[in-house]
Design goal:
4-stranded antiparallel sheet, binds copper (II) ion, 4 strands, 32% strand, alpha+beta
Length: 71
């Protein structure tokens, strides 16, 4: 399996607490290997197994915890 990497722009991350929430929620998803959230840049970089999960699932998980992934 080859890991894929994506960077999602996430509006509404304003502090380290937000970064932690994002990291916690995405890390819990099957197939997610690495999560780096940056509230200054408003980006979340995710390394994941494309056979197990995908960008749409990541975006859903962000919405579930109240963030808005940019299109
Ligand atoms: Cu916050």
């Amino acid at each position: 399996m080859t890991a894929q990497e994506t960077t999602v722009r996430v509006e509404g991350m304003t502090c380290i607490g937000c970064e932690n929430n994002v990291r916690f929620a995405l890390s819990a998803l099957p197939g997610v290997e690495t999560v780096e959230a940056d509230h200054h840049a408003k980006t979340v970089r995710v390394v994941y197994d494309p056979e197990t999960t995908g960008v749409e699932r990541l975006r859903e998980a962000l919405e579930e915890i109240g963030f808005e992934p940019a299109p």
